[in-house]
Design a protein that fits this description.
single chain; 101 residues; two-stranded antiparallel sheet
Length: 101
């Protein structure tokens, strides 16, 4: 039995551990945002990054908010992963659950 893929990651795109060194790491390492696949991504204003860093909820400023309770990826303009958060519709905010900054 051979696992040929996990989500969006396919075996033919894999890199052998023997091929990874300090020199090659920047070329083979994927950004953290690649690991959130089909999760809804919410681009955050730079002004709320400090709130996210401390695990505080941030307001939802998107025109079309996700459904209540949906788990979303909070990202920067350049798609860097800030946090995984739960949308709280009653408060119209995202509550960080796992923070990466």
């Amino acid at each position: 039995l051979v696992r040929t893929r996990i989500g969006d990651f396919h075996l033919e795109d894999a890199v052998s551990p023997d091929a990874v060194s300090q020199d090659t790491l920047p070329n083979v390492m994927l950004p953290a945002s690649a690991g959130v696949g089909g999760m809804t991504k919410i681009t955050c204003d730079p002004s709320v990054v400090e709130q996210i860093r401390h695990g505080r909820p941030v307001p939802c400023n998107t025109a079309t908010p996700p459904p209540d309770g949906e788990t979303c990826a909070l990202v920067t303009d350049d798609r860097q992963l800030l946090a995984i958060a739960e949308y709280q519709a009653a408060l119209r905010q995202f509550a960080p659950r796992h923070v990466f900054v």
